[in-house]
Every structure is written in C-alpha cells, then in structure tokens.
Inverse folding.
C-alpha cells in the first residue's frame, strides 16, 4: 500500500513538471511570434 502511494506522488511530481515545462515552451513560442509580428510591421 505504501509503495502504491509513493508511486502516485512520484507520478504527480513528474506530471506537474511536464505541465510547467509545456507552459514555458508555449510562452516562449508566443514571445517569438510576437517579435516576428513586430518586425513585419
């Protein structure tokens, strides 16, 4: 039982880190698009 709980906690930490990483990648892409948009004007 305790092993199962530990596995769930590890999975939660991994999935949270993945979500944060995706959010950073998305905001980085948005910044690049905005910069390119400003250059084209």
């Amino acid at each position: 039982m305790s092993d199962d709980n530990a596995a769930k906690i590890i999975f939660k930490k991994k999935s949270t880190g993945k979500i944060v990483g995706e959010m950073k990648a998305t905001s980085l892409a948005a910044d690049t698009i905005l910069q390119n948009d400003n250059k084209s004007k």
About this structure: The chain has a mean pLDDT of 81. The longest helix spans residues 2-40.
